[in-house]
Amino acid sequence: MTKLDVAAHVNPIGQSITRREDPPLLTGRGRFTDDIAIKGLTCAMVLRSPHGHALIKSIDTSAAASMPGVVGILTYEDLRGKVGDIRPNWVVGGSIVPAHPPLADGRVRYLGESVALLVAETRQQAADALEAIVVDYEVLPAVVDEEAALQEGAPQLHDNVPGNLICVFRGGGGDYAAAAAAADHLVQVRLVNNRLIPSPIEPRAVRAIYDTTNDKLTFYLPTQVPHMSRRWLAETLGWPEHRIHLIAPDIGGGFGAKMHFYAEEILVAFAAKHFERPVGWTETRSEAHMATTHGRAHIENVEAAVTKEGRVLGIKMRSFANLGAYLSNMATGIPTVNTVSFACGNYDIPALDGEMRLVTTNTTPVDAYRGAGRPEAAYLIERTMDAVAAKLGMDPVELRRINLIRKHQFPYRPYGHPLFVWDTGNYEGALEAAVKEIDYSGWREKQAALRAQGRYVGIAVTCYMELVGVGSSAAMKMVGFNRGGWESALLRVHSDGKVTLFSGSMPQGHGHATSYAQIVGSVLQLPMDDIDVVQGDTDRVPFGHGTFNSRSMVVGGTAAHNAAQKVLAKAKLIAATMLDSKPEHVNYAGGTFSVSGEGKARSVGFGQVARMAYVSSDLPLGMEPGLEETVFYQSEKMVAPFGSHAAVVEVDIETGEVKILDYVAVDDVGNLINPMLCHGQMHGGIAQGIGQALYEGVEYDETGQLLSGSLLDYAVPKSDQIPTMRTSFQVTPTPVNPLGVKGIGEAGCVGAPPVIVSAVCDALKSFGISHIDMPLTPPKVWRAIRAAHASGKEELTR
Questions:
Q1: Which of 247, 258, 355, 634 gets the most CB atoms within 10 Å of its CB?
Q2: How far does CA 121 lie from the centroid of its chain?
Q3: Domains and CATH numbers, the chain
Q4: Residue 72 three-state SS
């Protein structure tokens, strides 16, 4: 860990301090849920539906129950009247919520749905006994496509969801009809935003111990939202919330999928009490593909009203979101509030007419995945801008220049939206920096020369923005979100002057132990080694809302900053008494309080003040002992990170393989707490965005069978498929919070897909290929080239 020279008063904010949490993780000393050893721990396994849609005529568990080591088996009948349904946490207005029991109630609606839970002494015994459970299914017709599910005669999933339509959401503002009437062209595109599997390196896992003496559950769970997970568990089981102690240990990636509420959590907790044995369950990779929430899965039909000069007057979208068989936590909010609302992107487009149809199908439930609706929106508008540029015969970068929101327009209210405001921005600066860094004009010249040699190279520069850092509870209520937006921070100074921050945020590789210590250290001017960070323990940390929506620094970091300010203010009062001076005459620097003048200079160290806070013999009159403060910080506004990404690719027309020759990202996330961590966040997000663009895609057959059920069939990108990317930052601080920070965790996933697809299509434009739906796998690209060649668009020459 880099040590800062406190005597020199170096502010740790803005310093690339090495991650403090890495040594144990890199040396195999991390403590993940599956590592937790519990005496007498039994192993749970879930019997899952082998069908996409079927009735359960009977379940026979007798043979399995009599096998060696079997502790017990649970089916729906064992839970009836004792356990509630899994309920979504974000329900946009008008959405129908179908019943979702943790074990199937006579009918399964997607491959992998939980049918029974079996608990045995060992994993092998559980696996053997699971195979002995006999289920008689009556297979039903299935529907996996969101448009097909709305057609007359499509299989119906839920009695209370007629036509499989959960909701029709409409959003936007301005007058699109007037925009269309004034336009010279109406440009139309159809886009598929491919379904993805989050694929964190650590699968989901649960450990549950029920103490019958104290009537208390200890629950280990790798969750992004520990207190919310405890709340959902308590509500569903009908148990007192304070009698559930939830601990989130090290987490090997979350990406949104680990902030949802799953059947296995309910079942393992119930089983631990029911069987009076500690119970553990760890997901296999095939289960992760079937039963952990998927992401994206949209079809977008877009129309842009444009003038012949290139001004975009309005956007109209008629889209479909596949929510899967049931509503997961945030399922209805992601494609509606989080996609429709951002469909105009970085551009000053006065009218948006957005409509999103939410559809239920015989597939795994879909929910938030890194970016959660904003990648879909950025892809929608950026691919539309490319289509507009092609229609007008205009350079796509120049078209973007014409339409960007200007610096003087901030704070910017898109299309007159009543709730959303983009706080600050310099979109032109980011675009021009990316154009320069990628050498856009130079590559345009090279492109023509390389084409003459039979090489197909494409160049693209695209933009993105997103609204993150949700903090306002009132605003969340307005959009149907049933949780608060604030975040907690308890800052405790111990009697020796060392400090512990208890934060309601939750890391999954983010580096909070480093960045939060930097925030506290910047205020208290203490060495980093004197500051510990505790998260993920509901008995130690005040209630918090966890990590999602790139809110950790924006909301959680501000809470920590404000708590440190309050601690310092109290410490200064104590120091004034110890120095026999007035507080306004006390100076603080580098861990020392001092008073000059009035004779000889006097000073007292931070540790001495902390000790006096607990000895309490010399405190100001009326002051309570101790030195700790708790803050529940709630921001009434969100922040809008943004950026421009640029890519150069080459397409091998004989194989369809895409090679990324260069990748540049210029992002603006406000002030940087730790630049090294920021670069790392961008690298990871971009890698996942490239995965969506080129490799990853969930496939089902017409019966609901998952064709991409393992990593042999679902292509997560490998290290040699991710280019050496050049990431840099422009800094436009936000006035929304005292740190001037904006979120960064999801930005790479938002910015990468459109630029990669745009670059590939630019490489193939001589074939007349204007668009290929993601993922742009070699076979798909190869088929598009062959189809274009067959139509006489371009000779296949090298």
A1: 258
A2: 36
A3: 6-30+486-633 (3.30.365.10), 39-141+202-291 (3.90.1170.50), 404-468+638-798 (3.30.365.10)
A4: strand
